[in-house]
Known about the structure:
Elements: H1 3-8, H2 12-23, H3 30-45, H4 54-68, H5 75-82, H6 86-99
Helix pairs in contact: 2-3, 2-4, 3-4, 4-5, 4-6, 5-6
Amino acid sequence: MNNSNSILKTSHEDIVEQVERIFERLDASDIIRSKTLHLIQRANEKGLLGQCTPVGGAAGAIYIACILKKLHITQNVLSKAAGISSFVIRKHYILLARGLELKKD
């Protein structure tokens, strides 16, 4: 298997798998999980997932879902649960928020 090709082709399933892994470590509701999966589906339909790493895309979508549902979570807490840096979360949530045309209230 050529690893360079698999890195460039992040699938919807790869990101959903990472969402489930991160949720095992977070104390977050099923409402947040549902919103996260909805955002990932929309991102998939818009072709945004190919620009994400699986864990970065998952963490970015979780962060956006928390913001939209007014659940306070810090990027630091999420980065520890996901095993990635806060910078990676910011990069992915900005990419997804712009691609999904989400606006701050």
